[in-house]
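Per reviewer request, we include the raw input and output of the structure prediction for the construct analysed in the revised manuscript.
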Amino acid sequence: MTDHPATIGVVLAGGLARRMGGGDKAMRVLGGETLLDHVLARMNPQCDGLVLSANGDPARFATFGYPVIADGVGDFPGPLAGILSALDWAAAHRPDVQWLVSVAADCPFLPRDLVTRLHQARSAEDAMIAAAASGGQVHHVIALWSITLREAMRHALVVENMRSVHRWTARYKVATADWPASPRDPFFNVNTAEDLDMAEQLIAHDR
């Protein structure tokens, strides 16, 4: 049971591991499991359903057992398109749900109270968007979104060719929920082989 309104989660799993030799970053192994496994394990208890946002052959994610949705906007415009596709999916398949939370598949240490605290922040500030923050940095991709934002987001992507999540959210009041960045930043993301090595050390320290 959760103590916040019903919320669908989308894991943005389309990132390529260019700085680690290519392939799906989400499928890199950390502590004997994929990065995606770690993210799903942390988000599943917090959400009323999860979907994966990824382009290409969805069969590569079949073993995870979650719906895989591709961008509805062409030219692979980045995470904003993935969030929009998830908003559209939620509106079509879960019309009873009014909120979506987005997270990145390369953040294996996401807080287990992420969704609750994002809802608390947006409720306190009467906002339609709430983003996570740590160490003085706002993580605009790790955020809570009102489903009602989808048409405005679609217009920005299709008509204005706006691809920056940060630039688009700047049009709205964005509540923030802040976490300490030490002893470990919960939004540590794996971009390089060195990051993966550091994540292995962090995982080992937890055991």
